[in-house]
Amino acid sequence: MGNKMIEKIQIRYFRAHKKIDIEFSPFVNSIIGRNAAGKSTIIRAIRWVVKNKPSGNSVINWDSKKAAVRIIFNKDKITRTRSKTINSYKLNGKEYKAFGNDVPEDIKKAFNLSDINFQGQHEAPFWFCESAGEVSRQLNSIVNLQVIDDTLSNISSGIRKAKTNIEIITDRLKDAEDDRTKLTFVKEMDKELSHIEFIQKVKQGNAVKCSVLSDLLKSVRLYVYKRDSSLNRVLHSKKALAIGLQARQIADRAESLSKLIKQGRSLQRIVSNKPPSLNEIEILWMDHYQTITQKNSLKALVSQAEIGKELLCQKSNELDSKQKEFKKIQKNTCPLCGAKIKE
User: Fold this and answer.
1) Is-contact 304 201, C-beta < 8 A?
2) 6-112 falls under which CATH superfamily?
């Protein structure tokens, strides 16, 4: 039990002992008594608590229905109770049940004992009558020599693997040194690559500038097209104005002719009572109707001409603003050849 020493044992109705309390000294303890006094029963009670052996109700005293053994060591109290209806352990007040024929893990850890810690009354002295192999096996179970062997084996395996890795790494390092010697030209290539990247950046900048100039040229072509369209509209407007003037002159003539016709009619009525001929009037009426139709057409053309004139003024203003903007962007320099442009 390591540094743990059994301080006290309390036995209640366990085999021959109905009630007995034993306190142990911290040193070697001897239990002395006559034959069949229950000396071995004390050892069996301790084994019964530690190993849960024997199982069943055979350990209960014939004068009782249950048996109980309490072991006190250091500050721990472990109580084992057995009856027909009760089968439990208690560790410092905590109860354990339904563990079958085994021992609860907390109880095992608290005791830290095995069969090697118990020796019967009629058994041979510990290890003296055992074979060398059995002694080695039991010693190995105590100090766990297998762990040492496994550890040494793992260390040897690790050393071998480390040596192998060192050899592999050494070979790789040598190959790397050779590769570095072979790749001395990479520095020159890196310089050339940097120069090429610089040229590529300059090329990209020039491409951007060309794109901007191309957009400006498209805008200029669009403005020129709009200017030409405006000039065509101005020409059509001038023609419409000329036609309108002619129509106005014709209307004035028609109006004066109508006045003359009225005067002629009145005079003709005075001169002759005969009804005047309607042929000439019908002809004049047809001419008058055509004149009115031409007048209405000329009015429509005049209104269109005025709208075209307003649109011409608007486009002329836009053309002037775009030309000023183009001159600011151009700065008296041709965007294609870079030569200065004379005003």
Assistant:
1) no
2) P-loop containing nucleotide triphosphate hydrolases (3.40.50.300)
